[in-house]
Write a structure and sequence with these properties.
With 461 residues, chain A is mostly helical. Chain A contains 18 helices and no strands. In chain B, helix 14 crosses helix 17 and helix 16 packs across helix 17. Chain B is elongated. Classes of the chains: A mainly alpha (461), B mainly alpha (409).
């Protein structure tokens, strides 16, 4: 678990570095012209794959090693399996995947850029993840399945189903038909992998940190089922006004709007569960979860709106969408991942924990995300208008430049925030996280109790 | 929990799981399998009889396009929207993508869509642009792909040639299918009264504003111009090839064949400049500038006309006047036409249209240079082996005399 946590942050920092270089290359396009592996396209591939598999994948797994035993009351399937999974995920998928992408071996499909050989490893690792995390729920019996457990089981299993749609099918099904399948995965990658696991974290962290049950189990279940019903039906909204049959497009757009309704249900439930803690709770894990919930609401409302044909025709292909994806992955999912990691770290007696650094990290990330997403959304509107007006193409590039400068500047708080989080998780006294949790509930620290327990233990023997 | 309740719960989980999987299967069926069947049927019904495939070189180029992530800034999908169609051409039909394993539609446009790139720009434009994008388009943000070249834009490696071959194949199958292809597609289209489906046939297949065309009527340029605006436009878009003072010595000039014109060594009628700006110069790297308004083009034309110093040329020795006419009639009319209008019998067959001397007057030095050296990259050959010095001089003088000036408007 600890290993996954560290791997998460390390791959996160690398992916963010790729992202920063890519954004700077739009401002200094001659930078790196002599090194093919540093060119924009290849680093762009490495950026998104690194975020999804390196950062979010590892962060989710780290969280699951804590959450699954707690939720199911059973240990995960096998520690040995865990070491295999960790090795495969990081040293056979993400690491070599990056090397291959930068060396020019890739697949030009969104959210599926790793080459086929790596795709095969990812599938094996996902199967191992199912074997590792799902059986504990079944061995306990399913009478009391909490919503996080549903999301974990659903997310892991359905990712396995959805992954081939974007990674293998378009290699076998050409052109427009392939794009239809590709669209399924572009949305399912976010909808069936990232969102369920991020929501599992939020639904876990809120009651654990506030020590109050969630507001409504009924709403949590309603939200869960609507999500699994509606998310997969969104795919074609990535290709509106294309040659893909109009009924499929309209269906996907309708599902996108209904999805907004589902998200309102989920977020209402989460925010009501948070009541009394405020929007910026003292507990850092909880604070990340709260902000993640807010980002989730905004990004989903934005998603419902941008799927509408009249909006889509203007903002599609523009920086608006880049802003949207960063609000989803950098806002919602990354904050959930950080919530999970911090929460778990607080509960490992041997883990170092630096609350000050984490606090700084939180605020830097909030500033960075808000700055970047606002900036890119505005940029998208400007680009979209210029394209529709029939102005020369270069006008749109020229107009985007100030926004791209601000976007690159937003990397400063973001990178600073991520470094602060890394510092927060690897420096500070060991067990400081646990002590902070104990202090917040008025418990004596373990260190104070331990000697007395030792006395009791000796007397008993 | 009682036994019965437990069984009921297990049953409900079973139902829920089946439903969950069912939802997913439904999404694949509705948004994957069913569209695939429709699109395959459309492809069968609407494709030309023998659609053009991709050559080995084009396929290799396609792999490079994928490897470098070109699709993350350039889409290959023209939407059924008037804004897209006006800028790029006819919406992408299903059959046009039938060979795309995997598809390269893309979801982001930083650069323009490339679906109709075939026959839009010259190969040397592409080589120069891939090698050093800002040598051609100063404000471009495209990365340079120097690795595809042996150190210079004029030394493309096979990878660069393959990539350019691929770019020049985009949209070619639909264009080469011609009106028969369009008619077949329209007949096969179950458009009915579906206005959107009909849009696929509403405009020209390739509407790319930069595409060079021959002989389209250029719009009349307004007489009053904003010279300052023209100077900015010239510096932004023309100077990379034609040079800051129009001497044909911009940074990209050495990468292109034929070389960019030396604008300071020619007199041009406004009509001639309007034509070159509106249509581009087919067979050369000079693109069309249809994205710009007639006002902008007029301003650029004014700047170009200002480059000519207009010095008085040495007069032709008396005895050579008749010689010039004879030399021209014997050697030049096949291409440049009897009256020098660039409309000789061979003109239409040539890759680059012969100069129309009625609308464009080279300086004596420039004329002699062309006669002596030929114009590399065009069918104009050197004439030194067939004409003596007196004949060359006479011919250079003679073509200057054909200039009609702006009165011809």
């Amino acid at each position: 678990m600890h290993a996954h946590g560290v791997a998460a942050i390390v791959t996160l920092l690398l992916s963010v570095t790729f992202g920063i270089i890519v954004s700077l290359e739009l401002l200094y396009p001659d930078w790196g012209a002599n090194a093919a592996w540093l060119s924009w396209g290849r680093l762009r591939y490495a950026h998104t794959q690194g975020i999804m598999f390196g950062w979010l994948g590892n962060a989710f797994f780290a969280f699951l090693y804590h959450a699954v035993p707690v939720l199911s009351g059973r240990p995960v399937t096998s520690a040995r399996l865990g070491r295999w999974m960790f090795g495969l995920w990081n040293f056979a998928a993400v690491g070599p995947g990056w090397v291959l992408l930068l060396a020019g071996f890739s697949q030009p499909l969104e959210w599926a850029e790793f080459p086929l050989a790596i795709d095969a490893v990812v599938v094996v690792a996902l199967v191992l993840a199912v074997v590792q995390f799902v059986p504990p729920f079944f061995s306990r019996g399913l009478e009391h399945l909490y919503v996080s457990s549903w999301y974990i089981i659903g997310g892991l299993i359905f990712t396995l189903f959805a992954y081939p749609m974007g990674n293998f099918v378009p290699e076998l099904v050409p052109g427009a038909s392939g794009a239809a399948f590709s669209g399924l995965w572009i949305h399912d990658a976010v909808g069936l992998f990232v969102t369920p696991l991020a929501l599992a974290i939020i639904y876990f962290v809120i009651p654990a940190a506030t020590r109050r049950p969630i507001y409504s189990h009924f709403l949590s279940m309603l939200g869960f089922w609507l999500l699994f019903f509606l998310y997969p039906l969104n795919g074609t909204h990535h290709y509106v006004f294309s040659v893909i049959p109009m009924s499929a497009q309209v269906g996907a757009i309708t599902a996108s709007v209904l999805l907004g309704v589902d998200v309102i249900i989920v977020v209402t439930n989460l925010l009501l569960s948070l009541r009394g803690s405020g929007l910026f709770p003292r507990d850092i894990g909880l604070r990340f979860a709260a902000m993640s919930t807010v980002f989730y609401l905004i990004v989903s409302m934005q998603g419902s709106v941008q799927a509408l044909m009249s909006v889509n025709q203007t903002v599609h292909f523009s920086d608006w969408v880049i802003g949207h994806s960063h609000l989803a992955m950098l806002g919602f999912a990354t904050f959930a991942g950080a919530a999970g990691l911090t929460h778990v770290w607080q509960r490992i007696p041997t883990a170092r924990y630096n609350a000050r650094a984490l606090n700084h990290g939180y605020w830097l990330l909030v500033v960075g995300v808000v700055l970047m997403v606002t900036d890119l959304t505005a940029a998208g509107l400007v680009e979209g208008r210029l394209w529709q007006s029939g102005a020369p193409w270069l006008d749109s590039v020229r107009a985007a430049r100030p926004y791209w400068i601000i976007r690159s500047l937003s990397a400063i708080p973001l990178a600073g925030g991520f470094i602060a989080i890394l510092v927060g998780l690897v420096t500070g006294p060991k067990g400081a996280g646990l002590a902070s949790v104990e202090a917040s509930v008025g418990l004596e620290p373990v260190a104070a109790i331990a000697p007395r327990l030792a006395v009791v233990a000796t007397e008993a023997s | 929990m009682t036994r019965g309740a437990g069984r009921a719960l297990r049953m409900s989980y079973l139902v829920a799981s089946v439903a969950g999987v069912g939802f997913f299967v439904m999404s694949v069926a509705l948004l994957g399998v069913w569209p695939k069947r429709v699109l395959e049927a459309e492809t069968r019904a609407m494709a030309p009889e023998h659609p053009l495939g991709l050559s080995v070189s084009e396929l290799r180029g396609r792999a490079i396009y994928g490897r470098e992530g070109c699709g993350y800034c350039h889409t290959q999908q023209i939407r059924y929207l008037h804004a897209d169609m006006a800028r790029f051409g006819a919406p992408t039909l299903a059959w046009e993508t039938r060979l795309d394993y995997p598809h390269l539609w893309g979801t982001r446009r930083i650069g323009p869509d490339l679906s109709r790139e075939a026959q839009t720009r010259s190969a040397d434009w592409h080589f120069a642009h891939l090698f050093s994008p800002r040598a051609i388009v100063p404000e471009s943000v495209m990365p340079a792909y120097k690795g595809l070249f042996e150190g210079a834009a004029t030394e493309p490696r096979q990878e660069a040639r393959d990539l350019v071959a691929y770019l020049d194949s985009l949209g070619h199958a639909r264009e080469i299918a011609g009106p028969e292809g369009e008619a077949r597609a329209r007949a096969g289209c179950e458009c009915g009264d579906d206005e959107m489906a009909q849009m696929a046939f509403a405009g020209p297949v390739n509407a790319h504003p930069a595409r060079a065309r021959r002989g389209d009527a250029a719009p009349a340029l307004p007489a009053t111009v904003n010279l300052a605006a023209g100077q900015v436009l010239y510096a932004d878009h023309c100077a990379t090839c034609h040079g800051a003072s129009g001497a044909g010595d911009g940074v990209a000039a050495a990468m292109l064949l034929p070389r960019p014109s030396n604008l300071a060594e020619h007199d041009y009628t406004v009509e001639r400049l309007a034509d070159a700006l509106w249509n581009g110069v087919a067979g050369t790297a000079m693109p069309a500038w249809r994205e710009y308004s007639p006002h902008d083009l007029a301003a650029i034309a004014q700047v170009v006309r200002g480059f000519r110093s207009g010095g008085v040329e040495a007069p032709l020795p008396e005895g050579l006047v008749a010689l010039g006419e004879r030399v021209y009639a014997a050697n030049c009319v096949q291409c440049h036409g009897e009256r020098g209008a660039g409309n000789g019998p061979a003109a239409a067959e040539l890759k680059v249209a012969p100069t129309n001397f009625q609308r464009q007057r080279p300086s004596l030095a420039e004329g002699l240079r062309a006669l002596r050296n030929g114009v590399d990259g065009t069918p104009m050959a050197p004439w030194t082996t067939r004409l003596n010095e007196a004949e060359l001089l006479a011919a250079a003088h003679y073509v200057r005399g054909l200039y009609a000036g702006d009165a011809a408007r």
